Amino acid sequence: MSMLSEIREFLGCATPDAWVEAALRDQAVMLIDHKNNEFKAASTALALIAKYSAHEELVNFMSRLAREELRHHEQVLAILKKRGIGLRPISAGRYASGLRAVVRNHEPQKLVDTLIVGAFIECRSCERFAALVDHLDADLAKFYGSLLKSEARHFQGYLSLARRYGDDADIERRVAEIREVEAGLILAPDSEFRFHSGVPEQQAA
């Protein structure tokens, strides 16, 4: 199975064309939110290291991931500067908080759910890069194409850790449940365009 086939099979739906169209219309917001997401991904990895410091495999993976995500953050910053797009605050979308809302509160299930949510976020990012790459200018297409393998690797790493620390039957059930929630967030109307937002409200009406 190819990398993209594995990504698409894991997700519960494809990115709607209306989202791709919105991204192409508002590339400044897309890039600023992308930058923010790379920073949040690094911050999440560091927070997991702090919270689960006795989990050696997790610590090693998250340390590498944090460095890589910060490098991506710096690369997007450089793209913004080159394109004359100034930094400005933008609100976070509902996507990550919607996924975190289904994380169970007790351990070790909380860790397992957190890792599964991380896998879905990385998986969706990879799928969206792939959805965009054929529609972008050459420089941005090359950059987003270069991110496909790293995001797929992060997805696989998160899922592997969930299996390391959880029960197979429970993980299979939780992946199916979280897949449904994730697809709902992607397909539902969304009032704000963000990198992980749903269908733009005007197109969904």
Describe this structure in words.
- This protein is mostly helical.
- The chain has nine helices and two strands, in the order ααααααααββα.
- A two-stranded parallel ribbon has the order 1-2.
- The longest helix has 28 residues, at 138-165.
- The mean pLDDT is 95.
Strand order of the largest sheet: 1-2
Overall shape: it is globular
Radius of gyration: 17 Å
How would you characterize the largest beta sheet?
2 strands, parallel
Could you tell me the number of beta strands?
A: 2
Strand content: under 5%
Tell me briefly what this model is.
The protein is mostly helical and 205 residues long. The protein is built from nine helices and two strands. α1 (3-10) crosses α6, α3 (27-51) runs antiparallel to α4 (56-82) and α6 (109-133) packs antiparallel against α7.
List the helices and strands and how they pair.
Blueprint: H1 3-10, H2 17-25, H3 27-51, H4 56-82, H5 95-100, H6 109-133, H7 138-165, H8 168-187, E1 189-190, E2 199-200, H9 201-204
Parallel strand pairs: 1-2
Helix pairs in contact: 1-6, 3-4, 4-7, 6-7, 6-8
Notable traits:
mainly alpha; 2 strands; single chain; 205 residues
